[in-house]
Amino acid sequence: MATATPTQQQASRRKAPTGYRDDTRLALLFILPALIGFSVFMIWPTLRGIYLSFTKFNLLTPPKFNGLDNYIRMVQDPVFWNALKVTLYYVALNIGLQTVLALVIAVMMQRLTQKTWLRGIVLTPYLVSNVVAAMVFLWILDYQLGIGNTILAGLGFDRLPFLSSDTWVIPTIALINVWRHVGYTALLIFAGLQMIPETVYEAGKIDGASEVRMFRSITIPLLRPILSLVLIITVVGSFQVFDTVAIATRGGPVDSSRVLQFYIYDVAFGRFQFGYASAMSVALLAVLVVITFVQYRLTRAESSDLA
């Protein structure tokens, strides 16, 4: 049997690194378009926004450096703190309702039926744009002419000022966005449920565990990494609520629905104070980074109980 000589073995070892370098170049070539897009549309605007947050800039004249003036103004601005409080209230309502409903829908789809057409129906509201959804619900929930209040009146209940009351406006906006996004969130959780082995549930049934016990002791712990991902995505998305507020309420009544994104938009494009708007955007970025880091650590998103 022929064996490789020491010279041939050395030549073979020298060829291996050459093939690895070729694969690296090919990988970089495939990554390059996405890297260019990420740099142009994400990194550069972020760096530009941080720079503008230290300037006075009205779009018509060059930015003028003013140090920490924008951040000092932000700390002393009661409208900013009210917008942050309103945003946190909205996020708490939206995330709480959306996560619970999505989890229930996903578990029902897994345990009762896995028909494709049902998943399509669940996802349908997500295909409607935020603007269209806001306009439709603005008509449905109108105090005098809306079909929602007409049904309430027909059932003998009082009409509700869903979008014109400082008490009802944020819960109503949260429900509109829950309606639109809950199907998408449910499908993400449903995909996570598919990763849990059926043998685990069969073992639970042999031990006499009820459906509730298996949901609490098997489904929730093994679904934790996916739930962590879903929470991070939905929390970041909820902080960016804008379309529904801009179409349905314009921040009213009396700033009760003036979320932070809408306030930033108003300051930038309504008052042309881009430096101050950039400072608030940087503050929002910092808040999201901190919340995401805390969520990531508390939920142990990097590890799974499936081993």
UniProtKB/TrEMBL annotation:
Location(s) in or outside the cell: Cell membrane
Keyword Transmembrane part of the UniProt annotation: yes
GO biological process, one term: transmembrane transport
Membrane topology summary: Multi-pass membrane protein
Superkingdom to which the source organism belongs: Bacteria
Record-level GO cellular component terms: plasma membrane
Record-linked SUPFAM superfamilies: MetI-like
Keywords for the protein's UniProt record, in alphabetical order: Cell membrane, Membrane, Sugar transport, Transmembrane, Transmembrane helix, Transport
Transmembrane residue ranges: 26-47, 88-109, 121-141, 168-191, 222-242, 274-294
Residue ranges of every copy of the ABC transmembrane type-1 domain listed in the record: 84-295
Protein family membership: Belongs to the binding-protein-dependent transport system permease family.
Name the record gives this protein: Multiple sugar transport system permease protein
Lineage start: Bacteria, Bacillati, Actinomycetota, Actinomycetes, Propionibacteriales
